[in-house]
Amino acid sequence: xxxxxxxxxxxxxxxxxxxxxxxxxxxxxxxxxxxxxxxxxxxxxxxxxxxxxxxxxxxxxxxxxxxxxxxxxxxxxxxxxxxxxxxxxxxxxxxxxxxxxxxxxxxxxxxxxxxxxxxxxxxxxxxxxxxxxxxxxxxxxxxxxxxxxxxxxxxxxxxxxxxxxxxxxxxxxxxxxxxxxxxxxxxxxxxxxxxxxxxxxxxxxxxxxxxxxxxxxxxxxxxxxxxxxxxxxxxxxxxxxxxxxxxxxxxxxxxxxxxxxxxxxxxxxxxxxxxxxxxxxxxxxxxxxxxxxxxxxxxxxxxxxxxxxxxxxxxxxxxxxxxxxxxxxxxxxxxxxxxxxxxxxxxxxxxxxxxxxxxxxxxxxxxxxxxxxxxxxxxxxxxxxxxxxxxxxxxxxx
Length: 398
Description:
This protein is α+β, with helices and mostly antiparallel strands. The chain contains 13 helices and 19 strands.
């Protein structure tokens, strides 16, 4: 029986473990938390941090694993590649994964290789950063170099906002390092997100999606995705070509990449983030609804060296969206109300919280209450309802 090691045990990481179990693989889970949802699905559990590379390598060696997966986890992705490289298992180069999970290294890589990149620089202290601010033009993005889910990220428009933004970023950085970047204005309505998939170093699939955001709470945290992409074919092909160049330069070999891309002025492609893992917010499951391709299966099987995955399915001629259930208020969850107008569009929902449970303000992606999958009759209906989604789905808090 083949053994596969999974790094991380949150609700969103259940699907690949369930898939592996259902297909006869022995599943091993590592997570520093002692009561994770995935423990109820895995065959064996180790209370080990997914960022402790040597400790995970020790577990992997002891268990004689055949594959390793860091599903939807930026933090665990370098560990997975480190262990896989050491044990000669299918993966991507550790150096490449490290670049993609550190914003300072990623910006340097982009600049050194001729990609479009905003002016950016990283700092360890507030004083050091403030002394250098004259080299930047507002607005600015202030970010931890090593966080995900928009945690610790701020956009600022003046010096008055800088101290608070810097302190928030450094508080959320494991490396205690902050990167400052000039803000890039998009020339299209929504940021391009979604997942792409690599097989044998080749870009086999592009699951491009529109990223919807809520400016009222945190404009950096996505509150939904939609399909088809609101971008013409010429610009879409330009994004694909730049992704192919990035994959080639990084010598990426296999698996999923989660992307955040925008088109700036003069039709320039800018990579905001490229995560070396499947996207969170149930993107793999959403792409399966659209295309029929099982991306959970793909990530598990390719981690074991199996490549018999069909990526040639043509997306259905439908209009789809996801919505991240969230709250603008902290307190006790009273109810989640779906209007009659939106109920007809719901094809599935996944709610993690129950009535009476304490919930937090949605200031980053980890504060989601669940997800709703939607289907629409037309592009016009999709755009209109997603524009007013906060009125159509409401979260009541005491």
